Every structure is written in structure tokens, then in C-alpha cells.
Amino acid sequence: MNQHFDLVIIGGGCAGLSLAYQLSQLGDSCPKTLIIEERANYTNDRTWCFWDLEDPIHKDLAPYAWKKFTIKNHHVAHEYSCQETPYLMLPSDVFYKNVLSVINSNNKIQLLTGEKIVDQVTKESAWLIPTSKFMATATNVVDTRPIKTMTKKDSLMWQSFVGYEVELNSPLFNEDQLVLMDFDSIFKEGLAFIYCLPTSKTKALIEYTVFSEELFVAEQLTKRLLEKIGEYTQNTSYKILRQEAAILPMGNKEIDQQEDPTYLFAGLFAGAARPSSGYAFQRIQTWAKECAFELKNNHQLKRFKKDSFIQKWMDLLFITVIKKNPTIGAKVFEELFKNCEAKTVAKFMSDHSSIWDKLKIVTSLPALPFLLAIPELIRSKHRLDRSS
Ligand SMILES: Cc1cc2nc3c(=O)[nH]c(=O)nc-3n(C[C@H](O)[C@H](O)[C@H](O)COP(=O)(O)OP(=O)(O)OC[C@H]3O[C@@H](n4cnc5c(N)ncnc54)[C@H](O)[C@@H]3O)c2cc1C
């Protein structure tokens, strides 16, 4: 193997593969790229959902789409149509298989799986990237390794969840309608809800999610998930096909970028996670496309775009209200969907909202909890900035 590369991507997960996918489209203009990925195999380890708005990247890969959703609070269900902006679901194994086949078709890109970085990456005349078998050198590095040691103080709030994909013996689920949020008032340490994605009459991914200041590992949420699955399956027997779990940041302290512009941190903790939802998939896709364009035309890396001032502060205020009082949090979501068109909320969640949409969001929310949360937001933002 020739060991010098124009670009080394550390971590071939969502961000690393998405960038490589975009670069592979450049044909002969693609920089000579090496992806170093720790895992040996790609599996169906997560499910990416996003709204079908403004032609989202990889929309065509998503096998599931819902045009109706439910919001449930205190056992009262409200049904909404999202006909104009369906909610799409892309299982990660479908994504990995498709992007890997495109990446592999460009011989300027090499993917090394089952390999990891074993020491610090340093710079001499080029970046030195030590793997267990050889030293790769590179002009540019994109580092997508996640933060392994997350602590409470690294983010204003966290989204912790665990979900099981279950299969029933007899048809019960309504596959035309997903449950976006079914709030659980029994859970007191955060805003908790069930998220249920039925992919057929007998199969669904059912997740138990908590928005809170604390981080919850899967085992802490499993008991309540199983109780809720009991309700959703009417206590009939079911098989667990697979599990997925995560702790996603909501309003995180971003990784400090290096001063040298030829080394870029990217991915979930480098600006990809949207504060109000923790979601990152489409934001990663947009960055990957822009970064590939920048590399081709200016031979430079591109950072994640900062959120607009208004969107950022709306998000931070929103999560502060939920953090202060999870009971009000459920009411806030209920009011939001009741008073605002689904399309407006989807546009806001997908970084596509105009000033007019933002105004509609603001006016559909109860004013008092938001006004009361402003001092707390300023205090916690100071704490987060000081800890950087
Ligand atoms: C279960 C789950 C469900 C999610 N659902 C959604 C959703 O519905 N919608 C949405 O928008 N977002 C969702 N997200 C959030 C976000 O989109 C994902 O976390 C996404 O995978 C982030 O991409 P990434 O590249 O930053 O991290 P990853 O995809 O985790 O990639 C990082 C890669 O780095 C590799 N790595 C780590 N250490 C090393 C090392 N030392 N050397 C080499 N490689 C290394 C890892 O093996 C991994 O492949 C979800 C996340 C999870 C975990």
C-alpha cells in the first residue's frame, strides 16, 4: 500500500462514509483517500429518520415513509397529517451497503476496516497517522471519532434512548401511522416518551427516549421500555429482532478544532447534532456535500456550518424549558403540534425554516415558561462555555 494520501478519514461511520460517498462522485478528481474504521463489519446498528423536505440526500434509499403521526399525552392521542413532508426511515444497514458499493467503485478511495488509530496524530511535513500495522501520512485529515468519555457537563441536555425492533405473531400495528411522541408521566427524571415506528402490521421499532440533564444508559431504561412494549403489543407474545441505543447530545460543547485547517474534527460532537433534537443525519449529509465540493475546488476542508443566531437561541431556550420542568415539556410539544402545521415544525427541525416559520413556532408556544427560562439559559450557557 502506498502510504501517503491526500486525505485520511478517521472513522468510517455516518460522517466518514458520507464524505467518502460525496468524494467518490468526483471520479478522477477524487482525492486519494484512506478511511480507517475500527469496526470489522457493518451491521444494522441504528435507524436514521428525517423529514422529506427539500429533497433530502439519500431519500431514495429510505424504504419506509409515514404520512401520518400521533402525539399522545395523558393517554389522549392527537393525530396529524404530514402528507406534504412524510417522515422517512433509513435503516443503517441499507445506508452502509449502498454507500459502500459506490465508494468501492472509485479506486482512489480505500477503506480499511478492523483497524484503528493507536496513538496521537502528529504533524511533520505531513500528518502522521499511526495505525496498528503501518504509519499513514496525509495532507488532510478528517477525524470523526466520537467522544468516548461523555460527561454530564459536555452538553446542556442529553437524549438517551433504547429501542427494540419487535415482531408479533399476529397483525396488530397500524403501519400507516407512526407514534412520534407518547409521553410517559411516570418517569420523573426527565421528559420521557415512546417513539414507535411500525414497518408492517407485525413489525415495529419501539423506543423509550428521555430528554434530561443526566445521561441514562440502555439498562436504566429497559424496564420501562418493556412495560411500554407490553402496552403496544397488548401483551401478546413477540420476538425481539434487534436492539439499538444511544446517548445523543442536545446543545453540546463542540470539539475544539485545531488551528491547522488541514485537520478537521467532524461528526456528532463537531457541530452535527441539532440541539433541540440531537439528530444529525441530514446535517452530516449537507456538510459532506459541501466539504467534498471545497476539497475539489479549493483543496481545503470545510467545517460544519454554524446554526443561525436565531435558530441556535430558539433551540437552547426550548431545551432549557424542558430541562427545568419536564412536565411542561410534554405540554409544550403538545401545543406546538396543535397550533402549528406539521410542515412548519418539520421545516424548523430540518434547518429549513424561514423567519416567518420561526415566528409561527414562537407564537404557538406558551410564553410564560419560555420567559421564565431565559435566566437559567444564560447561566447554563456560561457554564458550558467556561468548561471549554
Ligand atoms: C441508535 C442511533 C439512532 C440515531 N437515530 C438518528 C435519527 O433517527 N436521525 C438523525 O438525524 N440522527 C440519528 N442519530 C444521530 C446521528 O445521526 C448518528 O449518531 C450518526 O451515526 C453520527 O455520525 P458520526 O459519523 O458522527 O458517528 P458514527 O456514525 O458513530 O461514526 C464514528 C465511527 O468512528 C469509528 N471509530 C471510533 N473510534 C475509532 C478509532 N480509534 N479508529 C478508527 N475508527 C474509529 C466508529 O467505529 C464509527 O464507525 C442516531 C444515533 C444512534 C447511535
What's the arrangement of secondary structure elements?
Blueprint: E1 4-10, H1 14-24, E2 33-36, E3 47-51, E4 64-66, E5 68-73, E6 76-81, E7 87-91, H2 92-104, E8 109-112, E9 122-123, E10 127-130, E11 135-143, E12 155-168, E13 177-183, E14 191-198, E15 203-212, H3 218-232, E16 238-252, E17 263-265, H4 281-298, H5 309-324, H6 326-339, H7 342-349, H8 355-363, H9 367-386
This protein binds flavin-adenine dinucleotide.
Flavin-adenine dinucleotide (FAD) binds at residues 10-16, 36-39, 46-50, 116-117, 144-146, 244, 246, 248, 267-268, 272, 279-281, 284.
What does this structure look like?
Helix content is 32%, strand content 29%. It has 9 helices and 17 strands. Strands 1, 2, 8, 9, 10, 11 and 17 form a 7-stranded mixed β-sheet that branches. Strands 6-5-13-14-15-12-16 form a 7-stranded mixed β-sheet, sandwiched between helices. The two termini are 39 Å apart. It folds into 3 domains: 141 residues, FAD/NAD(P)-binding domain; 99 residues, D-Amino Acid Oxidase, subunit A, domain 2 (D-Amino Acid Oxidase, Chain A, domain 2, 2-Layer Sandwich); 78 residues, no CATH class. Helix 1 runs parallel beside helix 2, helix 1 crosses helix 4 and helix 7 packs across helix 8. It is α/β, with parallel strands linked by helices. The mean pLDDT is 94. The chain is globular and about 65 Å long. The site of flavin-adenine dinucleotide has 31 residues, from helix 1, strand 3, strand 16 and helix 4.
